[in-house]
Design brief:
The chain is of the alpha/beta class. It has ten helices and twelve strands. Helix 4 packs parallel to helix 6 and helix 6 runs parallel beside helix 7.
């Protein structure tokens, strides 16, 4: 198959990781259609993508306002377009919110994805890159975390990702024509090099980097640093942070692999750096890069 002619559906493509991945897909010559319900994103982000790739490539980008839980939305999209593969981002992703509102996560993440897979099968679109999460490992007994570790997630959000991985395996077992790559993210951060596109969640951010950014511009008064006695160099929690553009490139590489190899099957791959960064290291790096001093409150 000639890759530049390939048509890709990107669910949740107006979101943080989705928009950056769409840019890289367009730069690689793919034709891209986004479906997004704008639950935690804005249409302006899609306009920014068009501006960043320029008029020559933006003609290969379509946007469809819709919800993957609504089979009619998907049926309309698939009946009017021939998709060669799907990159599936759409879903909710906040651990704390999932614990307070588990049904919302079951509805969005599980029912939405199952509906998507049913329509994909009906229209013979059987190549999938799935946005999973390192939360499927729970709290691993050692690091760095590798793909064959025990899967033992600890919250409703992580369980939806783990269940969807298992569902993907079941789909492939039942129909080996499916080719599926499960990408387990660690902690995406950063922005497009233009500075015009990045992470700007609605409401109070659930992740460290956008919280830092909002403190820096005065939207939030201070950064709460939870914990100061972790067994780390400075006592604060350590995470593996991967730049969003590296994450986007990972999706492009996975997609190309789906087209290049016949016997992919269904397998998982971690996307991270393998190196931890503490909360205070992240704050220091941000202050150095931005020239701003952040107000911190240790909890």
């Amino acid at each position: 198959m000639d890759l530049p002619s390939s048509s890709i559906l990107v669910t949740g493509g107006a979101g943080f990781i989705g928009t950056h991945t769409v840019i890289q897909l367009l730069n690689e010559g793919f034709k891209v259609t986004i479906i997004d319900n704008l639950d935690n994103s804005v249409h302006e982000a899609v306009d920014t993508v068009r501006d960043l790739v320029g008029p020559r490539l933006s003609i290969n980008l379509k946007f469809h306002l819709g919800d993957i839980r609504n089979k009619k939305d998907l049926e309309k999209l698939f009946s009017q377009n021939k998709f060669d593969a799907v990159v599936h981002f759409a879903g909710l992703k906040a651990v704390g919110e999932s614990m307070a509102h588990p049904f919302r996560y079951f509805d969005n993440n599980l029912i939405g994805s199952i509906t998507l897979y049913q329509v994909m099968a009906k229209y013979n679109c059987k190549k999938l890159v799935f946005s999973s999460s390192a939360t499927v490992y729970g709290q691993p007994k050692k690091i760095p975390c590798v793909e064959d570790f025990e899967l033992k997630t600890m919250n409703p959000y992580g369980r939806t990702k783990l269940y969807l991985e298992e569902i993907a395996r079941d789909i492939h077992t039942a129909d080996p024509e499916w080719k599926i790559i499960l990408l387990r993210y660690f902690n995406p951060v950063g922005a497009h090099e233009s500075g015009k596109l990045g992470e700007d969640p609605k409401g109070i951010p659930n992740n460290l980097m956008p919280y830092i950014q909002q403190v820096a511009v005065g939207r939030l008064p201070e950064l709460n640093v939870y914990g100061h006695d972790y067994p780390t160099n400075d006592g604060t929690a350590v995470r593996d942070y991967i730049h969003v553009m590296d994450l986007a490139d990972g999706h492009v590489a996975a997609l190309k692999k789906l087209f290049a190899k016949e016997d992919i099957g269904c397998f998982a791959c971690n996307l991270g750096t393998g190196r931890g960064t503490s909360v205070l290291e992240m704050v220091t790096a941000f202050e150095k890069a931005s020239g701003k001093v952040l107000q911190l409150l240790t909890m």
